[in-house]
Amino acid sequence: MDNLTSVSGFLLIGFSDDRKLQILHALLFLVTYLLALTGNLLIITITTLDHRLHSPMYYFLKHLSLLDLCFISVTVPQSIANSLMNNGYISLGQCILQVFFFIAMASSEVAILTVMSYDRYVAICQPLQYETIMDPRACRQAVVAVWIAGGLSGLMHTAVNFSIPLCGERVIHQFFCDVPQMLKLACSYEFLNEIAVAAFTTSTAFACLISIVLSYVHIFSTVLRIPSAEGRTKVFSTCLPHLFVVTFFLSAAGFEFLRPPSDSPSAMDLMFSIFYTVIPPTLNPVIYSLRNEAMKAALGKVLSKEEFAQRKMFLKAIFKL
Q: Which residues cross the membrane (predicted)?
């Protein structure tokens, strides 16, 4: 193992060296991954099939679920496989891909959450201009920009991190190729490249955060002026889930990446990494479904026996053709 990690790959030190705990970790991650997979696929399915949900808000929610699906798939399956095989080795190529897709998905998630907050701002604060501003072409362009921004961020981080020479044992005290942990293995730093990338990502994330905060300041000031309690409740039912997701994801990720890395990794480091890599993609479908009456109605319709029978007959008719 030492020879392998010293030549071409890395050794991921996960949650425990105890075999029973490794199996338990694999099972817990597997259950969590299946829940995230099921929940996000359901969101994607019902926002695609139900014509009542063909609006910008649910269009962005569908892409958030797609991002969550990709985001959790970058790290969790590899960690499950490593635990089951009792082998933390990950090749250099796998690590490069993991860093790229992890940064790309995380950056895209921040961007799509910002777009969703702007969508809620326009819908609540400028309702008469909503259809003009958030027309289908503008929504598609926003989603394309989200994916491109994430891809560029992933490319920049990957290029810089893997251009730095590494010294000593290539042991990463994390269950995936975590950038802060990998930087501790560096012999020296290319400061100009590091500063440029750090400045770009930090300024972009800060701009997204400011945009989200300003959007919700305007939203809440508008909502509080609504005379009807029922109207306020309806608005809050679409805004509070998004606000909770934004707060949880950005606070957990910000705490992990902005705090100085410790020389002695602890269980707390692993727990905080779970808070922004595993929990948000799993909870997001639940949060949006529980607080949104339209989502619950669409979900009930998709899962109903009548709807299932109709789709079954439709598929049979297609295959007969």
A: 26-46, 58-76, 96-118, 138-156, 195-219, 240-258, 270-290
